[in-house]
Design brief:
By secondary structure, the protein is mostly helical. The chain has helices at residues 9-38, 67-96, 98-121, 129-132. The protein has four helices and no strands.
């Protein structure tokens, strides 16, 4: 009678993955149990307050932040990632020739146009002119 499960390395590979998952879950459970047993549980009102950079919290945490802070952060991340794309190009552009140099200049020109656009919209200012009045 033939076996329903093939006896190949396929099952052995999945057994290794299953063993790894069991060991990982057991490791996590043991660490959480040990942590719960040995940690001190002396709570106080001061320990339970929100910690904000060494300052005592004032007011509610549910305030509306200006979206400009997020826009500024996104613009920074976009230009930061684009600068990372320039690093490999700067390392090897001499070996790639004039075409790679021209492509790099086009890429930098696109970044300059994007920076000019963002600057002209006033998104690089913390406080816009219409918010000051």
């Amino acid at each position: 009678m033939p076996s329903a499960l093939p006896s190949s390395g396929f099952l052995t590979a999945y057994a290794a993955v299953l063993a790894f998952l069991v060991v990982a879950i057991a490791f996590l459970a043991v660490n959480l149990l040990v942590w719960k047993v040995i940690r001190p549980s002396r709570f106080s009102e001061e320990k339970l307050t929100t910690y904000e950079c060494g300052e005592n919290p004032v007011g509610s945490a549910w305030i509306q932040f200006n979206i400009r802070f997020y826009v500024f952060a996104l613009i920074f991340i976009i230009f930061d990632v684009e600068a990372v794309f320039l690093l490999p190009w700067a390392v090897v552009f001499r070996q790639l020739g004039l075409l790679a140099f021209a492509e790099g200049l086009v890429f930098i020109a696109i970044l300059v146009v994007a920076l000019a656009y963002v600057w002209s919209k006033g998104d690089l200012e913390w406080v816009r002119a219409e918010d000051r009045s």
